[in-house]
């Protein structure tokens, strides 16, 4: 009898974490490596949020809390949804977890049975399919390529729906592409979903506040009130508030699913960090004035990276609406050979050779379900981005 669970055979480690770890290892060995794989802001957590955490510690707020969040934070989350999205929820409809990933995982674990299908647009965040598999479901990948600006079309969504479909996972702005859906584009998808009342919506809004060029963020239940009773709207403080390590995510939806998620969490991690919850409360209720300047920095970096990557031979890089990623195509590099003798027969081969020959760490597109591409996180300094993009240009120019 094998000791390890058969479930492990259905999943793989996170490629994005693997790239970041490899870049860190090479740096520790003294190698000149620029890592563009990390999905987190390089900004520090705002001081008022850190002060709130310190105050919570000093006040002894370091004990167990309610399983899925302190009442104060749940109310703040309700207020946030009303303020930012025009969505009305009660604290009983809110769940707080240890990061956005746990929120999504809890929901899938609480709802999926063997054979249940979950529609996931590709390119996708690497964890979506594996979380579905861990929960016993079947990922159904619906491609959203460069020809549609990496956005799923209503026709593609319609074609993916079957009687077995339980969830549609929606992410805007997207990781890995940064693509954001306009209200009109999202309405096209929600119209399809309204024709299929057995399909629930899991909306991952983690990059809500990271949008540029006047783009207006919208979320499914906001666009189509008829979906309210079968939508789980997920978010967190990780990205916009530069709080990735604090590990606080949250979601709001029908009480039935929130209760089920609470049961899962009660037998896994129990409550999120008490101190992190008080910090998240300050994040949602305190000053928001740092968001604008941070976004201006990200927009400048986005424009820098897009311009420099489009100047690289064989690379085409669209301009994303949000998040802090770009997802360039390397169609023009395929089949070529590096000075080191490596044939570029996949985007994984491209990323590996780029790291070995130029010391730039990116994540290959196959990890996100759409090739041949790679993902760059521009959540790092302008200096690093300029140097990394220059090296990418040199690498592409060296291919024959």
Protein described:
There is one protein chain. This protein is an alpha/beta fold and 400 residues long. The chain has two domains: 6-44 and 290-395, Aspartate Aminotransferase, domain 1 (Alpha-Beta Complex), CATH 3.90.1150.10; 63-285, 3-Layer(aba) Sandwich (Aspartate Aminotransferase, domain 2), CATH 3.40.640. Helices cover 39% and strands 12% of the residues. The protein is built from 13 helices and twelve strands. Strands 2-8-7-6-5-3-4 form a seven-stranded mixed β-sheet, with helices on both faces. It has a three-stranded antiparallel β-sheet with strand order 9-12-11. A two-stranded parallel sheet has the order 1-10. Helix 3 runs parallel beside helix 10 (274-285) and helix 11 runs parallel beside helix 13. The longest helix is centred in the C-terminal third of the chain and has 20 residues, at 291-310. The N and C termini lie far apart (51 Å). The relative contact order is 0.17. The mean pLDDT is 96.
Give the CATH topology of the largest domain. Answer: Aspartate Aminotransferase, domain 2
Q: Please state the average pLDDT score.
A: 96
Q: Strand order, biggest sheet?
A: 2-8-7-6-5-3-4
Taken as a percent bin, the fraction of beta residues is 5-15%
- Give helix % range: 25-40%
């Amino acid at each position: 009898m094998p000791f390890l669970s058969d479930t492990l055979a259905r999943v793989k480690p996170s490629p994005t974490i693997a790239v970041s770890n490899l870049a860190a290892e090479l740096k520790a060995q003294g190698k000149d490596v620029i890592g563009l794989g990390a999905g987190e802001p390089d900004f520090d957590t705002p001081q008022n949020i850190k002060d709130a955490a310190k105050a919570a510690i000093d006040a002894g707020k370091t004990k167990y809390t309610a399983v899925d969040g302190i009442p104060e934070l749940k109310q703040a989350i309700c207020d946030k949804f009303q303020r930012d999205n025009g969505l009305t929820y009660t604290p009983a409809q809110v769940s707080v977890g240890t990061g956005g990933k746990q929120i999504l995982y809890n929901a899938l674990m609480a709802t999926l049975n063997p054979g249940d299908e979950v529609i996931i647009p590709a390119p996708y965040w690497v964890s979506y399919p594996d979380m579905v598999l861990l929960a016993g479901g079947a990922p159904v990948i619906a491609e959203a390529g460069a020809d549609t600006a990496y956005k799923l079309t209503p026709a593609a969504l319609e074609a993916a729906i079957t009687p077995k479909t339980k969830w549609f996972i929606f992410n805007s702005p997207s990781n890995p592409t940064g693509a954001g859906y306009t209200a009109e584009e999202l309405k096209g998808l929600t119209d399809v979903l309204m024709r299929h009342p057995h399909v629930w919506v899991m909306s991952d809004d983690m990059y809500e506040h990271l949008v540029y060029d006047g783009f207006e963020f919208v979320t499914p239940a906001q666009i189509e009130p008829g979906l309210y009773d079968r939508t789980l709207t997920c978010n967190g403080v990780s990205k916009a508030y530069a709080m990735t390590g604090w590990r606080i995510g949250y979601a709001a939806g029908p009480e039935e699913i929130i209760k089920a998620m609470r049961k899962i969490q009660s037998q896994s991690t129990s409550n999120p960090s008490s101190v992190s919850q008080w910090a998240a409360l300050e994040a949602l209720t305190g000053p928001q004035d740092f968001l604008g300047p941070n976004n201006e920095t990200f927009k400048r970096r986005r424009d820098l990276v897009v311009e420099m990557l489009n100047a690289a031979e064989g690379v085409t890089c669209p301009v994303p609406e949000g998040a802090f990623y770009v997802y360039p195509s390397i169609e023009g590099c395929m089949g070529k050979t590096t000075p080191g003798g490596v044939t570029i027969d996949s985007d994984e081969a491209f990323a590996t050779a780029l790291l070995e020959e130029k010391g730039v760490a990116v994540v290959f597109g196959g990890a996100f379900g759409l090739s041949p591409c790679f993902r760059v996180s521009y959540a790092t300094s302008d200096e690093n981005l300029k140097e990394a993009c220059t090296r990418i240009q040199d690498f592409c120019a060296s291919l024959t």
